[in-house]
Amino acid sequence: MSEPTDKPAVTVKPPSPENLWAEISVAINYLTRVSLPFKDEIKSRLIRRSMVWFPIIGALIGFIGAGIDWLTTEMRMPGAITATAAVVGMLFVTRALHEEEFASLVDTYGKQFDRSANVGWLKEERSVRYGTLATIMIIILKIGAIASLADNALVFQTLIVASCWSRVLMVVAAAWLRPIEGDPVADHFQQPPALRVVLAVGIGALISWSALGTDAATVLTAGTIAGLVVALIGANHLRGYSGALLGTLQQVVEITVLGIVLALQ
Asked: Which residues does 51 contact at the CB level (< 8 Å), separation at least 6?
């Protein structure tokens, strides 16, 4: 009589090719302007799992921006022009999604600040919103940081890491904070499974380390602290996460990574 074999405590079943493609498609459709069709309605569990692909798609977005910077540099354009082209290119690829979400959250806090400070005593509607000003400021900061990087190789490395790690922390925030009911992004993605969060962090760390080497530890630590600050805003004020919070986190982490690399070069 053969002895019973012990079954493993945890089994990991790889996704089928159809489910794998569905997950990747969901992530691409959210993070970029590419709209991939679905044969059938996507199950909610696949949508939650799709966040594991955020760091890879983020790295590709950074690669596209860096490629535009390299191409315009080869055309003998000045640094300010090449950096602007790179930022505009990434804005086009992502349809300025996170910038819009960032502006939305800043607008919300700006209105609260106006009420608490009794600003607006002329009873006139603001013609320029706080979110618009904040978005302009962060775009200028990105252009300035990219233009100040030493060479095209460093631009490639930095944009890949900034775009990748900022989207890794979006996954972490979505797992940590509860989704705010009624928000389209939160209702769509809910909370990713723990294993997918760990995989996303691992993929992002591997990509970042491959790009920046030993400097990656400093850069990722600074970016994580910046992301934690934004996430705490969600925990303390919003009582959860929304699309606006994730977009704000992405923008803050991205500009932090750019700034730290600039300081280290």
From this structure: 27, 170, 171, 174, 189, 192, 196, 197, 200
Distance CA 62, CA 46 (A): 25
Q: State how far the Cα of 152 lies from the Cα of 231, in Å rounded to an integer.
A: 32
pLDDT in tens, 26-75: 999 999 999 998 877 888 899 999 999 999 999 999 999 999 999 999 99
| 172 contacts 220 by C-beta, under 8 angstroms | no
What tokens appear for 233 in the block? 């805003």
R_g of the chain, CA atoms, integer Å: 20
Kindly report each contact of residues 133-140 with a partner whose C-beta sits within 8 Å and lies 24 or more positions away, as own/partner: 134/102, 134/103, 134/106, 135/99, 135/100, 135/102, 135/103, 135/106, 138/99, 138/102, 138/251, 138/255, 139/87, 139/91, 139/99
Helix (H) or strand (E) holding 69: helix 54-74
C-alpha 219/C-alpha 205 separation (Å) is 11
Q: Which amino acid is at 91?
A: L
How far apart (Å, rounded) are the C-alpha atoms in residues 125 and 130? 12
Q: Which of 136, 68, 57, 58 is nearest to 99 (CA)?
A: 136
Q: Give residue for tokens 């082209």.
A: 85
Contact partners, residue 134, CB within 8 Å, separation at least 6? 102, 103, 106
Residue 85 clears pLDDT 80, i.e. is over it = yes
Of residues 162, 175, 167, the one with CA closest to residue 28: 167
